[in-house]
Recover the amino acids of this structure.
C-alpha cells in the first residue's frame, strides 16, 4: 500500500500537467478560437509581431518559447524545465485532437459567454499546471521568475502583461473584441489565482524584535515566506 501511495504521489504532478493541458486545449478550441477575442500572452505578442514585421506566428512562438524555456531552466531549475517541455508538447497535441474531434462545432456564438467560460477553463488549467511545478511555456514563465525572485503574485503579473498585450492589439483589432479580451483576461487570472491557493491554509505570525533586518533576511532567504514591517 505504501508503495502504491508513493508511486501515486510521484506521478500525480504529471497527471495534473496532462489533465491541465487537456482543459486548456478544450477551452481554446471550444470558446476562445470561435469567438475571435483578443488574446494576451505569447499568441497576442505573435499577432502584433506578424502585423508589423510580417514574421510568421509559428516562428515567433517557437523562438520565444525556446528563450523562455532557457530562462526557466537557469532560474527555476532543471525539474521545472523538464515538466514544462512535457506541458509544451501536450498542449499542441491535445489541441489537434480537439480540432479533429469537434471540427467546426462550438458551444455558443455569444462572445461574452465565450470570454467568461474560456477564462474559467484556462484559469483553472493554468493553475493546475503551475501548481504541479510546470508551465505551458511562453509568457507563463516571466511571472514565475518574478514570483521566485521578488515574491510578486503570479496572477498579478500575468494580468498586467496580458492587459498590455490586449491593449496593443487595439491598434488593428475591433474595440469590441479588445473589451471582450479584457473580460477574458480578468476572468482567467481570477480563477488562476483561486486555483493556486485552493486547499492551502495561511497563518500570520506577529513578531516583536530588535533585530528586524536579520529576522527579515532569514525569513525571506531560508523559509521563502513574505514579511511585512
Amino acid at each position: 500500500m505504501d508503495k502504491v501511495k508513493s508511486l501515486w504521489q510521484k506521478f500525480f504532478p504529471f497527471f495534473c500537467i496532462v489533465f491541465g493541458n487537456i482543459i486548456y486545449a478544450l477551452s481554446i478550441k471550444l470558446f476562445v478560437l470561435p469567438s475571435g477575442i483578443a488574446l494576451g500572452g505569447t499568441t497576442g505578442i505573435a499577432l502584433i509581431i506578424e502585423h508589423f514585421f510580417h514574421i510568421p506566428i509559428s516562428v515567433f512562438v517557437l523562438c520565444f518559447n525556446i528563450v523562455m524555456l532557457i530562462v526557466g531552466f537557469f532560474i527555476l531549475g532543471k525539474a521545472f524545465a523538464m515538466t514544462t517541455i512535457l506541458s509544451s508538447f501536450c498542449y499542441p497535441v491535445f489541441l489537434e485532437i480537439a480540432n479533429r474531434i469537434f471540427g467546426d462545432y462550438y458551444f455558443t456564438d455569444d462572445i461574452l459567454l465565450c470570454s467568461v467560460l474560456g477564462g474559467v477553463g484556462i484559469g483553472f488549467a493554468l493553475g493546475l499546471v503551475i501548481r504541479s511545478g510546470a508551465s505551458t511555456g511562453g509568457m507563463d514563465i516571466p511571472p514565475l521568475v518574478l514570483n521566485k525572485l521578488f515574491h510578486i503574485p503570479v496572477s498579478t503579473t500575468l494580468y498586467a502583461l496580458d492587459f498590455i498585450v490586449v491593449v496593443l492589439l487595439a491598434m488593428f483589432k475591433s474595440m469590441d473584441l479588445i473589451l471582450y479580451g479584457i473580460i477574458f483576461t480578468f476572468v482567467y487570472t481570477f480563477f488562476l489565482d483561486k486555483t493556486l491557493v485552493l486547499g492551502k491554509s495561511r497563518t500570520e505570525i506577529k513578531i516583536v524584535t530588535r533585530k528586524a533586518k536579520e529576522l527579515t533576511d532569514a525569513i525571506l532567504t531560508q523559509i521563502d515566506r513574505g514579511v511585512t514591517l
Observations:
- The two ends are 47 Å apart (CA to CA).
- The mean pLDDT is 82.
